[in-house]
Amino acid sequence: MSEAAYAYHPERLEEAKNIALGWRIVGQMEPQTLEDAIQMLRDSSAYAAQVYDLLYAEIAEHQKAQENR
Question: Residue 20: which residues within 8 A CB-CB, separation 6 or more?
Answer without folding.
Answer: 47, 51
